[in-house]
């Protein structure tokens, strides 16, 4: 049974991703900063008959928490097949370029970029033991430099001087990571789940958590001839899925 770690999986898109992977026969380690909320999420899945799931307390903002999570997971398994870096924050509004504070930027980067780096580096040894390791970094088409430079893009006027830069930086990390792991059977991609109505964005959106989970699961489970080092947004590009950087 292949094993998956998902950060920020106690709710919304992360939770739905966990549910779908469980339904496909994977064993899921549900990462949650809060033990209480994480346990509630695990119990909800088990109540649905999805029993191959357990909580891993994990705060991606905190190096000590990540290290402890690695130790705890190492007691449960010798190998990790999939890592989904899902935990993220938007940083609050407004996010104007001239008014955004350094503190706002630091807080968001600490989760959306540094958190991905912390977790990836901490668990890479377990991933290397998988025959077909996969890493998905949950991104957003809203961080595309190309799209945000195109006045004809439907979200052109929705600029963000904090969240978008954090995800754009994470995308660059994804490219570098995929390159470093390209000869080790890894598939590493950035995936936009779509504009989904969750508490992350004040429940505004055009998609569902189920659709988002399906998109993430697709790239978390791609076969050996699948892509690596790419950026996907099937909401933006339903034909090929590929999104411009």
* Relevant CATH superfamily: NAD(P)-binding Rossmann-like Domain
- Counting helices, strands and paired strands, the structural category is alpha/beta
Mean pLDDT: 95
Main beta sheet strand tally, sense and closure: 7 strands, parallel
- Provide the low-confidence segments as ranges: none
Whole-number total of structural domains = 1
N-to-C SSE string, H for helix and E for strand: EHEHEHEHHEHHEHE
- The rounded Rg comes to 17 Å
Instruction: Specify the overall morphology.
Output: globular
Estimate the strand proportion.
Answer: 5-15%
Portion of residues in helices?
Answer: 25-40%
Specify the CATH architecture.
Answer: 3-Layer(aba) Sandwich
Please state how the strands of the largest beta sheet are arranged side by side.
3-2-1-4-5-6-7
Please give the CATH class: Alpha Beta
Count of DSSP-assigned helices: 8
Number of strands: 7
* Cα end-to-end separation: 35 Å
Q: CATH topology, which one?
A: Rossmann fold
């Amino acid at each position: 049974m292949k094993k998956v770690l998902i950060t920020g999986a106690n709710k919304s898109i992360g939770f739905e991703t966990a549910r779908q992977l469980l339904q496909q026969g994977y064993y899921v380690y549900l990462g949650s900063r809060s033990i209480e909320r994480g346990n509630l999420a695990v119990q909800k899945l088990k109540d649905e008959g999805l029993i191959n799931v357990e909580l891993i307390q994990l705060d991606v903002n905190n190096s000590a928490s990540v290290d402890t999570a690695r130790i705890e997971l190492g007691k449960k398994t010798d190998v990790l097949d999939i890592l989904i870096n899902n935990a993220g924050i938007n940083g609050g509004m407004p996010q104007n370029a001239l008014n955004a504070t350094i503190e706002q930027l630091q807080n968001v980067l600490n989760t959306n970029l540094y958190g991905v780096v912390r977790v990836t580096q901490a668990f890479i040894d377990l991933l290397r033991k998988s025959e077909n390791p996969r890493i998905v970094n949950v991104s957003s088409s809203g961080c595309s430099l190309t799209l945000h430079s195109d006045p004809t893009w439907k979200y052109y006027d929705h600029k963000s001087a904090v969240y978008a830069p954090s995800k754009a930086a994470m995308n660059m990390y994804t490219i570098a990571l995929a390159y470093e792991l390209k000869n080790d059977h890894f598939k590493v991609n950035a995936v936009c789940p779509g504009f989904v109505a969750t508490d992350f964005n004040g429940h505004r959106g055009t998609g569902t958590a189920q659709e988002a989970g399906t998109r993430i699961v697709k790239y978390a489970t791609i076969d050996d001839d699948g892509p690596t080092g790419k950026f996907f947004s099937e909401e933006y590009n339903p034909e090929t899925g590929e999104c411009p950087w």
